[in-house]
Amino acid sequence: MTEKPSDRSKASIPLWRDVRVLRIFSQILFLAAIGAGIWWLTNNLLTNLDRSGLNIGFQFLRETAGFPISEGIAYEPTDVNGYAFLVGIVNTVRVAVIGIVLATIIGTVVGIARLSGNWLVRKLATVYVETIRNIPLLVQLFFWYFAVMLTALPLVKEAIRLPGSIYLSRRGLYLPWPVPTESFATWGWWILAGVAVGVAVHLLRRAQLKRADRPGLPLIPALIALLGVILVGWFATPGSPLVLDVPVLKKFNFEGGMWLSTSFSALVIGLATYTAAFIAEIVRAGIQAVGVGQTEAAKALGLKRGLVLRLVVLPQALRVIVPPLTSQYLNLTKNSSLAILIGYYDLLNVGTTIFNQTGRAVEMILLIMGSYLSMSLLTSILMNWYNRRIKLVER
Amino acid sequence: MTEQLPPPTERIPVLRWLRINLFSSWFNAILTLAAGVLIVAILTGLGRWALTEARWEVIPANLKLLLVGTYPVDQVWRIWSALYLIALLIGFSGRLHGGLTQRIGWVGAGAAAAFAVLPFPLATRGWLLGATAAVAVGIGLGQLGRLGTGGRARRWIRRAEIAAWVLSFPIGLIFLNGVGGPLPVIEGRNQWGFLLNLLGAIIGIGLSLPLGVLLALGRRSRLPVVRLVCTAYIELIRGVPLISLLFMASIMLQLLLPDNVRPDLVIRAMITITIFSSAYMAENVRGGLQAIPKGQYEAAYAVGLNGALTTILIILPQALRAVIPAIVGQFIALFKDTTLFGFIAILELLNISRSVLGNLEWRGTIFELYVFIGAVFWVLCFSMSAISRRIEKRLGVGER
Description:
A: MetI-like fold; 12 helices; 65% helix
């Protein structure tokens, strides 16, 4: 350590024993090996493609798709392949978002139930978690789809009627859905105004609370203001801006309302209940990670129950919960690709269909992998941003 | 730690227990009633179905198909032989070291004997009793091994044990399929039912653990190129679903490999699940590596170990021990993921059950079959996590 740099660089150490040289050399060797492997694979690929007269290019995305997609955003078989793939992506996002929301709700409830003082509730939650976690997701999806949806449910003629004009049958779930009328545009301005008022109230209240140095929820008055303006707008608008479209049983099927297919329902139920079991364990661990002393200290300071939970326990528990929760969200999104096995048109299903129609293996693989990677990246970025917000700010 | 005595047991009257645990407040009472109603509804509905309506005979009638698929009946002895080999080794190691392995041996032997009481065909019952006998023989050998005191004998016995475990892997495969062995090769190995789930999990974990360790070391390497390549591999694989990799294996492999190399479906599936699982395994191992304090490296260098020896002798044993629960969790996930093999036309347990449903005689037995499949996976996964919890407790991870 005491010698000068110039002394060390003398040629007293032979080249093949000089750590610095070895490091660079081994990296070059490693890179060469990887490069050779990739070159070999690419070479094989090009030879094979050449022999079958294929080239690589994305023009096929502009060709007519020609296959039907039964659900999702507006789509006709005459649309192009690229648009069909987009429909698949939207369908995957739809399942993932709804699944994540449901899984978080169920998971939180079950996780808290596992810590309940009530023996029966505690045991019930444990049985739920241990049963769901130890059975493959695909078995559960098949169970929901083939056994429950397609075997146990009645035919469309004898659909089960749930309160609120919701119908459940082998065709799927039909439920009433609000549809905008002509006056919707007028009401839209009221909504915008409501949002503006809500934001203003939120900012004012937050500044006020900060000046008073008092804990509180600035969001609640903001939401009240928002809803108030929207409600006033509803009554001020001539004619109803939204009408409820109720499903009605016609000759062969229901008409009107919102239709959720059996495969969609099975997928959402299966994904949400499965992921919820894992989220429950994360929530439980997060709450347990906050020491009892924290609650006791907060109570000793005279905080009310709600404030203890909101200001002391939750902020600390969330710090433990959010990172593993992120990976569960990512898992759910990736697991939604099992849709292909129960006939839901997610991006993988549409992608393989396009591949079957066009024979474009390399391009479709790139598109599919790229879509999943960007979705994972997006979720990670969002959750990391949230994680940074709730992170412990150390002095 | 000083020995801890269990707290004195207090006999709580039933009524008081009920009040404390179920009816401590009006809210709790409502919860109890709601949960009770739910449990009773589920249990009565399920019980009525399971006892009166369900046609459970579908399971024994198709048991052979579900468990080993189209494996020829006159060759089934080969599967049993591979199983006996494992049973023998578990018995041997268990007796040699005692503790958890021994208990696993006892439980396994007991379970096999208990199953032999059930009304299976006579031959099956014989084979099951054979498994119990194999464990017993193993225990006997282990007892013999314990007689060998003295340092040298001990060392040799230990070496023989490790060699036997390592060799059991290829020997088992030779027995099952006759890959180049003296036994005839069995065709149609993509139709072996549950055997494929087991094989997929065992081969997948056996290959992805060492690969994952290498990747984790690579990701923490001081060489930027190695670090970059390993990180890219791990993040790419973890960013895509397994089923898209299987899709790739089913259509891309013939494009990426030269003409004369055409691995069959099962090998493709095994390679894919290894590639997939090793990325997750690498992250688990990395977690363990990060938990090792710097002083361990410095101490190892101070006593003169070089980088490789430090990693093998000092760092990895501690790092792997710290992440045993995560590794077992990954093993369970891998085992559950083998059901996805059905996507590339492999008839594993879940996929082969569809051929039972296609049989007119067994139409409408879908609930029975799925309950059976779920139960098989549940029992195995639950026991694995129970074993993992035991190991964790014994090693005292997280207690020191």
